[in-house]
Amino acid sequence: VQLVESGGGLVQPGGSLRLSCAASGFTFSSYSMSWHRQAQGKEREWVAGISAGGLTNYADSVKGRFTISRDNAENTLYLQMNSLKSEDTAVYFCSVQKGTRYWGKGTLVTVSS
User: Fold this and answer.
1) What is the pLDDT of residues 46-104, one digit of tens each?
2) Cα–Cα distance between 106 and 91 in angstroms, integer?
3) For residues 106 and 36, what is the distance between their CA atoms, to the nearest angstrom?
4) Rg for the chain, CA atoms, rounded
């Protein structure tokens, strides 16, 4: 299993970013996927999840601002982040539970003026 996140960067408050997670080594379309984040000095927290069938759910802190989606033909998971706030600053990880839980190495999102 390999998960590779990309798309992070520096963005001003109120701005947008789209994160991607390229997945390989397993049948991507058969598994639920999720995004998590970890801010400096804090524990990793779940942000959003999407089932194999496309059902989504979100942490209250991002509901209405973030959208998780997947492209099964491209084995890619996405996180569209709008109306970003300084408290969204964190390293963002994609993850899959296939027996054990697998993680990518993360991509840093910094929201600052």
Assistant:
1) 999 999 999 999 999 999 999 999 999 999 999 999 999 999 999 999 999 999 999 99
2) 6
3) 9
4) 13
